[in-house]
Please model this.
Amino acid sequence: MGSATVVSTLAHMAERCTCMRDLKLLHAHAFRTRLHDHAVVLGKLFRFAAVSPMGDLPYAHRMFDQMPHRTTFFYNTLIRAHSHSTTPSLSSHFFNLMRQNDVAPDHFSFTFLLKSRSRTAPLTHHSDIHGAVLKFGFCRHLHVQNGLIYLYANRGMPLLARRVFEDVLLVGLEVDVVSWSGLLVAHVKAGDLDVARRVFDEMPQRDVVSWTAMLSGYSRARRPREALELFGEMRRAGVWPDEVTMVSVVSACASLGDVETGRMVHRFVEENGFGWMVALCNALVDMYGKCGCLEEAWRVFHGMTRRSLITWNTMMTVCANHGNADDALRLFEWMVCSEVVPDSVTLLALLVAYAHKGWVDEGIRLFESMERDYGVEPRIEHYGAVVDMLGRAGRLQEAYDLLSNIPIPCNDIVWGALLGACRIHGDVDMGEKVIKKLLELKPDEGGYYILLRDIYVAAGQTAEANETRQAMLDSGARKKPGCSWVEG
Model:
């Protein structure tokens, strides 16, 4: 068989490769036939190892290290591979190595590099890559410019994203739906939803990315009605949603407590083949839980063939928030038996469950064992759950001692929970001690004075209640308006 035929055969087989075992056999055959450095053969083998889901990136690194002649293609392949990997910062390493070795980057180099840069945090030196784009003359390449727009968009930098967008127009290029979507995402990430909506309305055409970006922005900003209205427009426009779209829609239903719309969305999910998506099922469990429909939450949970840590945590949190401590504990045991490692959210759900059930001593033991048994360092929300647990049980001194010796920065929310417990139990002395702590943290919050005054009134100490009210007026503190999770 001639060498040209062997090259063609090896290249064809490498393109059809489905696992690393087969690729290694092909690589070995390439060595035996002395074609391991042939550009076409090596390129096909290398690309599979580097970027295929069934590949092996460390193996691709070893291949790269042994190459006598590394072209732009091979550098680009590694830059691309790391842009999708858990180590996106290595894309910059290979780009810099490429420049050090006088290998010229092309537009693919910048497209992959910009993708990886948008995934690394924080973005502190964005000007270096922007400058490199200009230096190498890619300011007239739309894919590269779109990459720059998304680089700034993903960091919530709408002014810089818009500047690139306008630069594209200035050099005579036509922006496309990707450019517009990038500008939209920039404003959404920055929290400028009204500006984002103006950009959305100005778009000459919209794809699922742009619809989903706007819809997700509304959902995350607690503007669920607008999210659901936009979803209706999206369906009428004939744009097919994806998993991210549907998660945002379900989250909007949960925020509104609108279980009827949630059930309609659930039917849409089942009828259109979205039911296998773990993140979407997690959102449905959360939605049903927040709407008080525990049977339906359990039905979704039991119907899942795959469950993530978030799945277990969501179902446990639903049980905990509804006071079903026994179910939460059984879920925890089932989760551990399934070899799923608990995290801080898991343990918080358990603490909340114990608080609702009144299992104070069990909750304290769990709290004290978090770091030792699970490697989870307690955070402020865990302290808050324990304070709530102790406060419900009337063990106010223990709660006070816990917060007084907290090893992390405290906040007014947990101290406020303790003050609320003082009011419930009519403990004037403890209320006075807690209010001092609260006023150190938030001297202008009048709500705390009002709570203390109520404690005095309940205890029949009218003079102290009047003094507290006067102290509030003298300090200039004002009660901030509360918020409701229920919308009319």
